[in-house]
Amino acid sequence: MKTKLLVFLLPLFLFSCSNGKLQDIPARGDFAVLPEPASAERVANFAGGCFWSMQECMLSLKGVRMVISGYAGGNTSDPTYDKVLAGNTGHAEAVQVYYNPKVISFDKLAKAFFLAHDPTQLNGQGPDIGSDYRSIAFYRNEQEYRTLLNVINKIDDSGKYKDNIVTELKPLEVFHPAEMSHQDYYKRNPWDLYIRKVSKPKVLKLRHAIPTMIKSEYTE
Hints:
By secondary structure, the protein is α+β, with helices and mostly antiparallel strands. 28% of the residues lie in helices and 20% in strands.
């Protein structure tokens, strides 16, 4: 579990994890608040392991304006980080992506999501084990569902992975924003050993895999 790694701190001056700026995410108390999408903007939701790295991965993409970390896929109405980590809520760590479909399509967003994590690992990602770290691609309509299914079938048929993709496809019911302490965690905590050893390799792998889709300020 990543919480066991957080006790190890490394000096901030060693290196920074990202060149991007912090997002202007609204808050109410300790929790983030979901803003309304901008004009002609759409939103998408994904869960692929720890939301610290997934938020940064999705935010790196051209056409993405904002990414908020939170919880989705479960059955409780008041999830918190501690509750979700305990595994009793049914929720997974997830993100909500605000994107411009004229710049990045849902199809390309989905492909980036599958590159940003291991979709063949069941109920976990790397050292993070549990259903709260499971892979889920959420959809809002039939077209998005078919797009996701098509992306999965193409990846499976390509032979990229030895095992088949186990990502759940679920209609989005509700997305719960996480605590503000988890928003932009990757950027704000470059000294964190978990960020350095687990999150950063995932983020860099995505950026190197699809360089033409990455914002210039995120290139390293």
